[in-house]
Amino acid sequence: MTWFTDSPFERMMREVPKAQPPEPVPQKAAPKGHPCYGCGQYGAICVRPCYRDRENTPTTKKENKMYQLIIAEKPSVAQSIAAVLGAKRRENGYLEGSGYLVSWCFGHLAELASAETYDEAYAKWRYEDLPIVPFSWRWKISRDKWTQFEILKTLLHREDVGSVINACDAGREGELIFRTVYCMAGCTKPTQRLWISSMEDDAIRSGFQNLRPGSDYDGLHQSALCRAKADWLVGINATRLFSVLYHRTLNVGRVLSPTLALLVQREAEIGAFRAEPFYTVQLDCGGVSAVSEKFKDKAAAMQLADACAGQTAVVKCVKQKERTEKPPALYDLTTLQRDANRILGYTAQQTLDYLQALYEKKLCTYPRTDARYLTDDMQSSVASYVAVAAELCETPQPEAIHAEQVCNSKKVSDHHALIPTANATKAAFLDLPLGEREVLRLVAKQLLCAVSDAHRYSETTVTLSCGGQEFTAKGKTVLQTGWKQYSGGETVETPLPEPTEGSALPMDAASVKEGKTTPPKHYTEDTLLAAMENAGAKDAPEDAERRGLGTPATRAAILEKLVSAGFAERKKLKKAVYLIPTQIGNSLITVLPEQLQSPLLTAEWEHKLKQVERGELDADAFLGGITAMLTELTRSYRVVPGAEVLFPSGREVIGRCPRCGSDVTESKKGFFCERSDCKFGLWRDNKFLTAKRITLDKQMVAALLERGRVRVDDVYSEKTGKRFSTDLLLEDDGVRSSYRFDFGKEGTK
């Protein structure tokens, strides 16, 4: 076990972690006659004004003034902010003007370094090294992002930069992206925070008028840093532990593994399900179709049908009740991803990508939200957003707009619900790619639904008596379509005649209908996202602010990771695409301890991260708990018997192991038993065989395993230097294997 930690919580990165620059990439010079001949940036992305333009631009004396440096998460966001603020002059990696310098990151410029960065020995995965817990955390900047980091570092240290504004996405990850760059650059200048939910010009202006001190978000940064380090600790240690013990790469994560467990559990339920038939009796009486309760016994149902045939049915009861279906709430990211998957067939990641593009084009509000309401101060603006939505959907606005239904500040944390912006005009809409149009139209429809009247209908229930049994018929009459005029929801009427109680209805027919119980359905991305959102909700702490697996911002990536890691696959059955666990996915859940499969671990983490954010829990205490859990896991976990069956190598079987009878397969260094706790192996690099210039091949090993001997020709004699033929014998005492020659008996090759 190797420890690397000194705490307290890394001095919150005040030690200024050092990032080593990547090896320089040789630049190619533009050939003579090329428009870019003479430019030192040829071969790289052109992000500065052309050197020729600079040469032709008259130099002016710079004013002695101070700048505010603004750092956004992406170049596109930086450009939008710069346009609003009047920073129009393009420089190398930033925009300048009106007293502002506006630059950008490329997402996470720096990420936590891999384990081998701390010690070269960790390049090889070994059980003896676990758990790996860094003493002083290191960060790594990829080669393609190093240039931009150097630009930001230079800007942060410019003497004419008085303060810095964090304009990265308003959330936990955005805070981590900015603070990591800020700390790694060794900057100590005062910071402010821009917190907006829309890239509209008015929203940006309003945000800059309401900047908050960066220190207000220190807790959010601590929470983000805790989350990143905890995920690193679990991912590195648990992945290595199970990969080493089961001899194949097995990715383990605090959200990934419980999500995979949901898939495996559902498939187990489907596999164990046994369909059971049931029977009902249907009566057709004077325009009323009534059905009996379910019978398990067909004979009993047939007997009732025979008893009712030719009889009259008596009306025992007629009930009418008016029912109301309230409009749905606005979309958060997860509910939109679910509907986009169900209605449009888009994956969660595709939906997020489309939303991000719409956000950057100022046509939709911030995508990574978990709120389904707007803030109270937006109530007066709802009508204008509704007008935009109606234009996008080419439909009339609701007669009455109930803005109060969609505004509730108590249910909004970081960002409000998804809605189209005022910039989402019909002309802008038609210029969009198909996927973005369809997703934006879904968002617009949801807004129209949410502010509309309720859907009201009258439900009639008629109870009949015949043959000593009761039969029920139901009908529906729509009283007010309401929000369903926009949703395309079910509004079909099934009116019933309203006979009086005690009246008799003539029997037209009595028949037996057969049905079968149905198994649970395979998970689609729609239903899996819902399961992730609600996982462990019953067992989570009552005051937990976030339940379920992952966050709206991370769930799409988790689903993609399940597929890319080979733990799940997408299968199209009939008209739907389902997520099905693979054999390896099933095997992984079989060997994982309950602790790593349970959604409660993630729920507990999210609860504690909120406590860290509010300053109620020390960051060291949180990470200390994670470390203790991993230490106990590595000490106590034992390999599940039969692992060679759970995790077959997929390699060709050469023969049976003489010690345990398991499969022996070929690998790069020799032929080895597939059973993890069996040490039998025939190495190619064997001193006895090498000296005799014998090379093991599959045919030879197969014979040795089956008969214990094989005929070998052209064997080299170290004493005489001559060649000869003989029988090679394999001897194994259960601990080690050895070879010898048998010159007394003919063998077969």
What is shown here, in short?
With 749 residues, this protein is of the alpha+beta class.
Structure in words:
There is one protein chain. The protein is built from 23 helices and 27 strands. With 749 residues, it is an alpha+beta fold. It folds into five domains: 2-210, 3-Layer(aba) Sandwich (Rossmann fold); 238-271 and 521-636, Topoisomerase I, domain 2; 277-326 and 455-516, Distorted Sandwich (Topoisomerase I, domain 3), CATH 2.70.20.10; 333-450, Topoisomerase I, domain 4, CATH 1.10.290.10; 653-742, no CATH class. The strands form eight sheets. It has a seven-stranded mixed β-sheet, with helices on both faces. A four-stranded antiparallel β-sheet has the order 16-15-14-17. Helix 4 (172-184) packs across helix 6 (218-246), helix 10 (348-360) packs across helix 13 (434-450) and helix 11 packs across helix 13 (434-450).
Q: Give the count of helical stretches.
A: 23
Structural class, by secondary structure, is alpha+beta
Distance between the termini: 49 Å
Q: What percentage of residues falls in helices of 4 or more residues?
A: 25-40%
Q: What best-fitting shape do the alpha-carbon axes yield?
A: flat
Which stretches of 5+ consecutive residues score pLDDT under 50? 1-17, 44-49, 51-62
Number of structural units classed as domains: 5
- Biggest sheet, open or closed, and with what strands and sense? 7 strands, mixed
Integer-rounded radius of gyration: 35 Å
CATH architectural label of the largest domain: 3-Layer(aba) Sandwich
Mean pLDDT: 86
| Strand segment tally | 27
Q: Under the CATH scheme, which class of the largest domain?
A: Alpha Beta
CATH topology of the largest domain: Rossmann fold
Beta-strand residue fraction: 15-25%
Strand order of the largest sheet: 3-4-5-2-9-10-11
